[in-house]
Amino acid sequence: MIVGGLTTVVSLTSYYFFTTAFLDPQDPFQLMAANTFSWICAVSFAYITNRKFVFESKSTDKLREMLKFFSARISTLLIEMACMTLLVNILHWNDRISKFAVQFIVMALNYIFSKLFVFRIKE
Length: 123
Known about the structure:
By secondary structure, the chain is mostly helical.
């Protein structure tokens, strides 16, 4: 839960930085760019912390594990982008509130995917 929370902080902070400094979230392309950049920051942080602290992975095939991790996270990125497009560009909600709300769905799905597909202990 702590690592998921910290990953959310990384995601939100980097998203807010990109939308404040460079990108306009009212433009659909720039909204997706900000979301993608924050995703890269958050997933990089999440892989390292999930591997070490949450699942205490002992896998020797780190490349395969990392590819599975990033693949699972791409699926939640697509869900996040769909939700953000709906909330911000179609329903015209505030992008920061939308990003915050969507993070709860993403965090839950990321944990489930990591537990079931990425860091699963083989018996």
